[in-house]
Request: fold
Amino acid sequence: MLAIARWLMRGTLQAMGVAALTAVVPWLFWFSAAVAALVTLRRGLAPAMPVILASALPSGWWWVQGDAIPLSTVLLVTLMAVVLRSRMRWSEALIVGSLVAAGMVQLGIFLPPGGAGPLLEQVRQGSPEVDNMLRELSEQGVATEQLAGLLISGVTGLIVMLASVACLALARSWQAGLYNPGGFREEFHALRLTPRELAVLVVLGVVGMVLGLPALAMLAWVPLLVAGVALVHGFIGLKGMNGLWLVAFYILLVTTWPMILIVLLLAFIDSLANFRGRLAHSD
Reply:
């Protein structure tokens, strides 16, 4: 893929063509978003605008068809690329991305056409157990349609945020491979939230719960999760451990909730204790 990235960076037309083509093809929007992020990281927002538009216009067509994920991902990863290029801090880019993703969820951008009602009705017809559960919740005064809409929007927003982080990481690795070999590995291994940034995330989560903005509380932990993943990568790199440890880590992370909680807790403590700095100093 690095050879493809090298070819893309030889001219704007190549990058525009690939960004537009992969945005049209279903399930390749992530590649289009990564191309837009790569050009933005390397050249800046204004020079990258033709490539961003080439990616956003076909993604906008998918939005009209009822799929908001491609365009949302392109816009979100571009925003984070701009922040990362200007501030040179992954943590700040992740916090800004989480805020924007939470705003998208609260605005109902990820709701299906017609709202959650039609989909909820289909689920009720297909599953008597779910229908009985929803009826009991309605009798208890719970707005089931609003709850379903929040669940759909929240899960979709989380997918968009994680996909955007992955696209940004891919674009950054391309950039490092082309212009600064080994730079991405060093940068990602050093990713850590400062105590001030951690406090910002905690405040955002509390504000989201107090003000009835569940999307904010739901997505505020994503930067902490990414920092925890970077902590594991950094620890394995410092110790020179086999790459199979990373494979096992990701399998557990994807399949078990306790591992996610452990990673969040480790990232929380690391922002205060700086495990990698202490380990590197002791070595």
Remarks:
- The mean pLDDT is 89.
- Residues 144-179 form the longest helix (36 residues).
- The chain has two domains: 1-115+159-183, 190-283.
